[in-house]
Design goal:
Elements (H helix, E strand, L loop, with lengths): L1 H20 L5 H28 L3 H19 L10 H39 L9
Helix pairs in contact: 1-2, 1-4, 2-3, 3-4
Length: 134
Amino acid sequence: MIVSVLLLSYLYSYLLFSDLQSDMMNPVELCERVNAMVEPQYMSSAVFLALLILRGQLLLAAVAIPVFASHFNISSMNLHRLDTTTILSTVSREKQMCALRLALLLVIFFYTIFELLKTVVGVQSHGHAWSILA
């Protein structure tokens, strides 16, 4: 659930940055919308990483650590809020960072779906269906 919320929020942010680059949105509106999502994204990322570690999902936690580390680094330097005066010069970097976070979360999402399907099919057919994948 947390992964899907994070995925949707990063996808929305990515689309907003694309709209700004194509002059379909003004910088003030973009900053207001993205800044409203920054703290919930950071908190969700921290909770998600903590849940992965507590559940023993260390492989997924290793993939989620770069997202959390970038959030922690940006917020510790107090750069987590976008500024309307500088956003036009930093929009491509912000868009790339958003795309990177989105890609890492997509890896986690699809791996989770794969493991879920593997468990469901494995339970129903007593492990025979996944013998070629294991």
